[in-house]
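Extended Data, panel c. Modelled sequence:
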Amino acid sequence: MEQVEKAETRIVILGDETTTAIGDVKALGWVGRVIARTPIEDPIIDIYNVPSPGETSASLLERWGGEVQRRFRPETDNRLVLALGNSDAREGVSVSRSRLNIATIIDEARRNEISVFVVGPPPSFDKALNYEIEHLATGYEDVCRRRSVPFVDFYHPLVDHEGFNAELEVSARNMPAQTGYGLMAWLVLNRGWYPWLGLEEVQS
């Protein structure tokens, strides 16, 4: 029986500095840890992480099309990860505007046959800001739920996590370190990553 060749998959990850490895002595961040747990040879999966520090939903809406156009091909299985930060909350952008921006990206991507996976904003060590981030995260989750798009909630599992907050407290940039990035990666891997890619879960 002739073997059917599997299509190559290309994944573009767009987000702010939380998709980098800032503060991680292992230089992996959550993205590197997720990639390390993702089979990328059969079928071939190429992953492109394209962060933009301080990214807002508006700047993401502005740049996403150009970023994916440079990396996707008509013959590949094209997939987009939106790793949403908390800049909208810091800058006082209304939740309704943030929702609209992300909904527009998702809808346009799907019209172009691009599958979308969304990661919500992580909590801050600033408790007042967390009030706004919680509303933002809930709004993003609702946008995804209405469109049956996978959504990973970083906020609620991490906001009261002792290890995560301990790293934020000592960070000049309000960024996690090894523990925090490990927790974030675990959440992604256990909240729909493998089913989204059509892969079997990698066992420890």
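DSSP finds eight helices and five strands in the chain. This feature is highlighted in the accompanying rendering.
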